[in-house]
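User: Can you predict the 3D structure for this chain?
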Amino acid sequence: MHKNFKDILGMKGKEKITVLTGYDSTMVTLCDQVDVILVGDSAGMVMLGYENTSSVTMEDMIRFTTAAKNGRKNSLIVSDLPINSYNTKEDAVKNSMKLIEAGAGAVKLEGGKEVAEIIKSITENHIPVMGHLGLLPQTAQKYTVQGKTKDSAMELIEDAKIITKSGVFSIVLEMVSSQVAKIITEKISVPTIGIGSGKFCDGQVLVVHDMLGLFEKIKPKFAKRYLSLADEIRNAVKSYTIEVKEEKFPSIENEFQMDESEYNELRNEID
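Assistant: Here is the predicted structure, written as structure tokens:
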């Protein structure tokens, strides 16, 4: 039985929560040991080649969510509501339903007090919501650390309290100064999931393509690379190309053979 949002909520203060992005069934199958698979709109950049997440559509997110569901056995799937899909309460509920129908166990949206009523309307329809504070990629003009001044820190803390009251079961904190992330984690009753926000959060999330060293266009400081798969893939492709050109692949073990007597009969008929 796969995890649900209550399982994640219950991990606060007891066990660190592991989150990786997942956009296709093959990768999700390999990563299914984590607590949460986040079908992030970052898929637009790492899978579709967009410059940012602002071009991602609901249709994109439904397709990626379906693919993730097909590879998942254990993890909770949380899917991003893309930009402009939750401008009104009606749109937010309708589009959240679409992601749930596609296989998500919860949805995620960006923003603080300005989306508090939107969050409430979704949760009132029995759909779990993960919040997202700090750097908001859907609307950010530039990627800078959040919560570096007292005033901005107070605003983040207040936003965290407000959306917690609105019903989120967890909050992603992106590029928030570690001191402020620690305060938020201590002040709210739901888990915080950090990305570039330090070790004091209740859990951590990384884009799997960053973690595996597959996506090279952007190399965030906070994204630790556990592998360099891009180099290994290039080397494998180079070896494949050389072997085909030099007629070393396919070899006899990669072929299928006719029965010799059948082959001889065939040759006789042709000749």
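The longest strand covers residues 129-134. The chain has two domains: 5-227, 232-270.
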